[in-house]
Amino acid sequence: MINDYKCLLDPYQYEDIDEESDTEEDFSYFEEHGSVETLPKKRTMDDRHSERKGKMKILALDTLQVVFCCSVFCLSGVKVEDLAMARNLFQEKTKSERSQCIIDWIILSSNSRGSERQWIVGSKNVCLKAWRLTLGIPESTFYTIQKQVLDGKVTAEKSGRPLGSVEPKTLTALAWLQDFANSYAGFMPDSKQLHLPCCLTKSSVYSTMVSELEGPTSQCISLSHFLLVWRTELRHIAIPRRSRFSECNTCVLLKNEIESTRNKEVRKQLMQQRDTHLKQQKSEREKYYKHAMKARRNPDKYLSIIMDAMDQAKTMIPHFTATPKFADGMWKLKTHLLGAIVHGIGAYGYLMSFLAFLVELKVFRKIKLSFLMVGHTHEDIDQMFSRFSIWLNHNSCKTMDSLMNGFQNCYNPKPTSIKTCQVYNYSEWITPYLAPMSGHSRHHVYKFKLENGKTKMVFKEWTTTKAWRECEGSDRYPLLRLPTTQPKLLQPNFQDLDKVESSILGARKFIDKKDMIWWERFFQEKHNEELEYEDDDSSFKLFELARFVAQRPLPDITTFSVPEIVVNRDVMPPVILGKKTKPAKSQPIIMEEGLKADDFVLTNLEKYSDEWPQIGKVISICGHNIHILWYKGSKSTSWSPCTMPISGQRGKREPFTETVTRDQIWKSGFKLTNNGYLPKSVKDAIDRY
Fold it and tell me: Exposure string (b/e) for 424-450, b if CB count within 10 Å is 16 or more?
């Protein structure tokens, strides 16, 4: 009888039994005793997780008394209370404490003869197997620890990590993903979420992380762990299936092509194009934050402004958190929220003319206008709008005053709300003085600067583009001349005011008495304004600003002495080996005579100061002016001709040529080697220059 049921009652052999080989006789024993539970055929996710963690299923206490452990059934005479106490005391310990407890038992349980050991449960001696089953110690764990004790080990090592600790490579992945989202994601205007471009996938983001972090000493977490960290720690970062706003055309096209193609090489090329596109939009955003930081550090010298408008449907008043049924067809007062973040303190043609106007009035010395990439424009101003939108979801605003107070209290640092009372008809006023403009919507960066008393406008495609390009056409400047008059004020539109007033009176029972007083005063003021409206011929504020800047006193210049502690040495003394010798006389660089086409020249233009050396190939010579084709390369690599994109022709490029004067050339009359490298004499001349 004992031998027949040994395999069924041994918990370790029981787990290895094939469920399909069970018979009715096998289960009859369990039905008679009613205490042994069989494992379900379908395991839950928790069970699988526990098994992966290495957790052993422990037999019930009443089952232990009938388990076959040895020929004398050691546990049959032990009370259930003693079994429960022994198990609870052991299982309440940590993993390291349980290992130390087993080591202590192995050392202390040896009898005087040293060949047998005593294992005690409660007050009764039991066999080793009974002792292990009672405490819930796996057989492999016990014998592993016993081998360590025989090898002389008397203390257990602390295994695993402290509770709440995270591996360094996981922290690296978290920091990388957060930085990636800050560089590429857009702020949502009504939530805390960051939306990455829709052309990305989580697998592609992981591949980007691996490629950026790869190195001999770096280790990356697995894809499954990366997805788990993303899902649990950074849930606010998402890749939407569909963007709630206008999407970038390039992102949409790339996503569709990548999903539809089955050619691995084509997919690889498309992914490279996607990476190039995303790096470009990242560079544009970084440039914006760089300008903002310059304005914060030097508010007296720089001014950085970002502007955007909020959805008008969210700011119409009265605004209710719980919208009553009657408000569905209610006429509300439209309010337009235009946000501007000033760091440190539409019609694109009219905007550019306004900036040129500011420079020509000498309000600013120089203005740069940048447009973020279409579809990637959700920046910090949208984050401010999102906080205001969330505030509106939890608060009612039934008057203009409460709306403005809510806007000021929804964000930190607190924004300033200003209600505009006058709007000038600037576009109609400036049109006669504005040069016709076309092609200005394709570029992203413009610069306005005074030249001979007039504002000159230059442009380039991206902030990363090196060279500025000048405008073409018959007119040299965007403003033909300064206006001599001032713009007129736009007349308010009172057409639907009666409908709004009727709706407010119908909603009287939903509006507080204090707010109704505000509305009555508001309608009375507007009716009086409609009857007595007159054009205000007050001075244009921009002219007042120009006069103020012109009359502003120069700052006092105080002389003071600063002790010279840190000395900057442009030329460090050389290291001398042996006896000091007289330095060789340097030969002055002389322009070679007889400059001709196809010769190469070296220049030193200030606008290309980031590029060195500056090398061009002579195309033609016209007196003092020399037309050259720029080359790209370095002192130790080969050189090749430069190209630039053709305006208005997507994907097409042309040679990058420019006209320089003889005074701007400091060396000429040389050729590249057959492999396109600089001759040694030219390299030496560059080192001496």
Answer: eebeebbeebbbebeeeeeebbbbbee
Mean pLDDT of all residues belonging to the chain: 75
Query: What is this structure's pTM?
Result: 0.48
The residue segments making up the domain with residue 640 are 600-688
Question: Highest-confidence range of 178-182, 183-187, 306-310, 533-537, by mean pLDDT?
Answer: 178-182
User: Which of 165-179, 207-221, 240-254 holds the top average pLDDT?
Assistant: 165-179
Using DSSP, state whether 322 is helix, strand or coil: coil
Taking CA atoms, 502 is separated from 315, 331, 400, 505, in Å, by 20, 8, 18, 5
Half-sphere exposure of 14 toward its Cβ, with a 13 Å CA cutoff? 19
For 362-383, the pLDDT digits (tens) are: 888 888 888 877 666 666 666 6
Spatial neighbors of 674 by CB under 8 A, at least 6 apart, are none
Residue 223's φ and ψ, nearest 5 degrees, are -60, -45
Q: What is the number of other CB atoms lying within 10 angstroms of the CB of residue 51?
A: 12
Encoded tokens for 145: 């620890």
DSSP β-bridge partners for residue 653: 645
Strand, helix or coil at 626? strand
- 231 belongs to a structural domain: yes
Beta pairing class for 625-632 and 614-622: antiparallel
* One domain for residues 175 and 278: yes
Beta strand pairing call for 625-632 and 640-641: antiparallel
One domain for residues 132 and 181: no
Q: Is the pLDDT of residue 32 over 50?
A: no
Distance CA(616)–CA(26), nearest Å, equals: 93
**Averaged pLDDT, 439-445:** 78
User: Is the pLDDT at 468 greater than 60, yes or no?
Assistant: yes
* Confidence check: pLDDT of 45 > 50: no
Residue 215's SS3 state is coil
Tell me, yes or no, whether 117 and 213 share the same domain. Answer: no
Question: Which tokens belong to 556?
Answer: 């006092």
Scanning the structure block, which residue is given the tokens 């495609």? 461
Q: Are residues 52 and 108 in the same domain?
A: yes
Tell me the C-alpha to C-alpha distance, in Å, between residue 516 and each of 124, 506, 609.
87, 11, 65
Beta bridge partners of 626: 621, 660
Q: What is the 3-state composition of the chain as percent helix, strand, coil, each rounded to the nearest 5?
A: 40, 15, 45
Beta strands in 236-296 (DSSP E): 237-238
Residues with Cβ within 8 Å of 395's Cβ and at least 6 positions away in sequence, in order, are 321, 406
